[in-house]
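Job type: complex structure
Entries:
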Amino acid sequence: MTTKWETVIGLEVHVELSTHTKVWCSCKNEFGAEPNTNVCPVCAALPGALPVLNAEALAYTVKTGLALGCEIPHYAKFDRKNYFYPDSPTNYQISQLDLPLCRNGHVEITTADGNTKQVRIGRIQLETDAGKLLHAGDDVAEAHSSLVDFNRAGVPLIEIVSEPDMRSAEEALLYLTKLRAIVKYCGVSDVKMEEGSMRCDVNISIRPAGAEKYGTRAELKNVNSFSAVARGIEYEVRRQIAILEAGGTVDQETRSWRDAKGISVTLRSKEEAEDYRYFPEPDLPPIVLTDEEIDRVRQSLPELPDSIIHRLMNEYGLSAYDASIIVAEKELAEWFDRAVALAGAANAKTVANWQINEVNRVMNLKGLGPDQIPVSPEQVAGMLKLLEKGTISGKIAKTVFEKMIESGKDAETIVKEEGLTQVADEGELLKIALEIVSANPKVVEDWKSGKATAAQWFVGQMMKATRGRANPQLAMKLVTEALEKFTGQA
Amino acid sequence: MSASTYKLSATRLNRLFAAGELSAVEITESVLQRIEKVEPRVGAFLTVTAERALERARKLDGRRKGGDTEIGLLAGVPVAVKDNMCTEEVRTTCGSKILGGYVPPYDATVVERLRGSGAIIVGKTNMDEFAMGSSGENSAYGPVRNPWDLNRVPGGSSSGSAAAVAAEEVPLSLGSDTGGSIRQPAALCGIVGMKPTYGYVSRYGLVAFASSLDQIGPFARDVEDCARLFEVIAGPDRRDSTNANRTPHTIKFGGEPSLKGVKLGVPKEYFAAGIDPEVKARLEEAISQLQALGAEVDECSLPHTEHALAAYYIIAPAEASANLARFDGVKYGHRAENAAGMLEMYGKTRAEGFGPEVKRRIMIGTYALSSGYYDAYYKKAQQVRTLVMRDFEAAFSKFDALVTPTSPIPAWGLGEKTDDPLTMYLADVCTIPVNLAGVPGISVPCGFAGGLPVGMQLIGKHFDDHKLLQYAWAYEKVTTHTQARPSLEGGL
């Protein structure tokens, strides 16, 4: 008997908030500054310094919670999580244990087959980021010394904890993509995994399909990109199933993903798990939020991805999947809206096709981020106008598209400079058709014997002769005319 | 300059300075000479900032002569500051080796306020390491001696600040009180010491021991001086999130001392077993005098008092175990040499840097917060804390203030209790509940037991600090205890 296995995934996502200043002091919150230049007595934990909550960080956390459909309790508090590490100047992290700022939210995901699913969010807590360590040597174990940069220490961090609601790497990626989009739409973080402003721990377990009880989970750390999340999950699923099928049991442990090697290794076992000795933070009073304060934050929410997806589906007839691809990045959705405004709502589906099939393809190929869209909505709308007017053919449009990206010029200029206008002069095209027909008597015979593809072949030759500039319908009409003329003469 | 300028009260010095009858330099020189003379016997200071103080005095004199009419409440008055409050450019050790060479880059809020009021900081005072102790003997830099008997302890943890004021080295000093660290040494040294309502005085720049209990407060030789220093240091500060954002009342003293209409409660639990009979007798005399002033006195009960000490010795060490985690050798302070790796560096640094009492409390606190013990210890202690608070609330529904001994016993001999921490902890049995409840308490001298000072504690409602000062003033006016001065004798 072979067991069918089910994968169960929950994600803990850390997002650095892009507040102007740090969470407990007025030091600047900026990425990439000279080491230890954005540091004060509070964030360096000098003796006697005390934390004061940054109101912007509080509002950003609540805003994120509201955007993710969370309840915002009227009463929340901070706790100390105790552990020693040199990147933590206090040797404890101010976090939230039992009364976080947001609870019970959800993210809706749509899979490629069009199914939608809710992934529940248990909680969002506001906490403190640590500094950065720089080790002299390749590896921390071999380093003879280490340096600490406290610029990041005290940057506000939110931890978004999902319920174990995902069942595959695909779902995990869809969740992460959607979550990142929502956070970005809120304008509370730049959510860049490569700069560490979005980080992710993955909890994975396996159970027999249909079982109610969850399997023992492993927590995967150091997954630093979306593709690493997918690879890490797939590896972990294989590893755990292999253990189970061999009759073994999965250990509850924290594992570290080694992306270069494509494997995970044990970081600490359950027995070695740290006791964080949480207790209520005595330097900060509890947070009490009124309905009015929560409403004020609610009013600052922008149009969110789910609402845009529905708008794109209802107004333009896009599929849920296509809409969700466009909305995955704020910049892509803005690009789409702008292009549709220029090209006209009737062309929205065409715009979507170009964006998903062409623009995204080029961006993936070149590894461009959403803030680096290589072609403007104006350029693409201009190109679609030419296509609509028949000035260029669909085939030429692709050439024009590539050239727009290369040169940054608009479609009309490119068509003019390169002489890519569709040839619509009947007399000239007929001349070319007659030349081709008279030069290929064998194919003419085929045509005469009723072979349907023969006419197509002649149209292809016309396209070749005009470097694709012939209007395809006109070319077909003239080829037929030329064949009739030619065979009539013969 | 009179040879005894240093003996004058802060209020008097401030008036003489304002009137131009005494210069700040004259005052400072007198105080510095006194410090130089008695320090070898008392050991109240860890750092005397003579040059800085004189420079500051010269500036104050210049400003006054230049016609500056804004004379602060403490203009021209020398003040000593406990060594757990940060002073920019002046080392701040907390009485610990781990901060031996530590020089803060900023001033604590109270230090800023002192400067703003025209005070002259003359030095940093000795203390039990990280404010943990009741005798002054836990300093890494040697014990402070009680000016009334140099063979006895001055109390703690603000040992130096209390002894310096009692020995007439300075008219005023700042202490911090987590479980009695101002009131208990004030009682043992025969001076006035007050722990304000939690949240009245900013903790910014006070090196934290137990954040939910710590409060900075004044030491003085009389109530009026004490009130003056309180008024300077209390008030709003956005840098401390636990600050109550309250501006203190301006307190005017004068007229006929009277406690007419004031209802005072005497909690019976504070006079239970363990109290020295002479201390008890002094308190009973004091209560009669309060009645003579017109106060209505009645017995009352704070039934959870007996559990307060135990709750305190969970909560305070728990907070301390986290607060003291930052002393790790990475950023500042002592770092152990020749450690093989990070963990060994942490271990050696802290083993070398902390004294035995601090280590004991870090271990107690770490244990109490540990997984599986939290509910039995920390959570239970917080529940007891709530019950203690309710005791006070109930009492204050009937009384304006409560009267208790500050310490059940007078000063004991140096070294007498150092091997028995539990007995030492009992010295704070009357002061600890006040910190747990966050209410204000003041200790005023109420006589002597075997030649050693005895203190009476008045406990008030939240933010009734000004009323406590007024009651204490009335009592002081009809007694002579605050006029007594120590001889600075005893076998050395």
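Summary: Residues 302-418 of chain A form one domain. Chain A touches chain B at residues 41, 44-53, 80, 82, 84, 86, 89-92, 146, 148, 275, 277-279, 282-285 (CB under 8 Å).
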